[in-house]
Amino acid sequence: MVSKVYELMSNHVSIRKYKDEDVKQEDLNMILRGAQFAPSSINGQQWSVVVIRDKETKKKMADLTGGQKWIEEAPVFLVFLADYYRTALALEKENKEFKNMESIEATMVGSVDVGIAFANAMNVAESLGYGIVPIGAVRREPMEIIELLELPKYVYPVLGMCIGIPDEKPMKKPRLPEKAVIHNEKYNKDLNDLVDQYDETIREYMDTRTQGKDVRTWSQGISSVYENVYFPKVYPSLKQQGFTNDK
Predict the structure, then answer these.
(1) How far is the CA of 83 from the CAs of 38, 101, 109, 144, 174, in angstroms?
(2) Model confidence over 187-206: pLDDT tens digits?
(3) Which of 40, 62, 128, 164 could be bridged to 72 by S-S, CB 3.0 to 4.6 A?
């Protein structure tokens, strides 16, 4: 028997068009509680979330993320934060210096904690019939978002989530071949043929999805992004928020 959780997760698609219906508050509460049940490093719970329903704030967020109108149109937008503000209060209470914020490890832990909490929230939302889309571009203009949300030191926007009732049925995007991702005992570096195979799969997917308007491979798509530092304001803004990453 196939697990209902597995079935839910394996049928995920990103939703960018929503019906003109609100997210029920009791459902949102369940989504957020689900996120809180996520495990975290040393039980530090190095994440928080800002819930945005205000239309004007959503419009500003849409503009700051590069004109992503679905943020403005979704009834709820969540901003997941790497959050060491509470941690700093705990160290202050114990009269200890917050040395770990000097390490890249703090940034990694905060990002991982956000990712796990985000996944929990996504799965609960989709189990309730909502659609979501992750928004990494909350890191596009980080200082403006930090000011807009009044984030204190040691808090940083990592990932956004639109939530709403789906008003579209997009095709499910094919994933990389399992052998390119799952390695037994040791990493298999002989992946060229699998990448070629996936490029053809994505080319066919894009051809069908866009009716021939955008026929690109996976390699072409990611190369167009990763040939540049696409969010150059992340590093200096992390430092400004106390994530010094010096060690």
Answers:
(1) 15, 11, 10, 17, 33
(2) 999 999 999 999 999 999 99
(3) 62
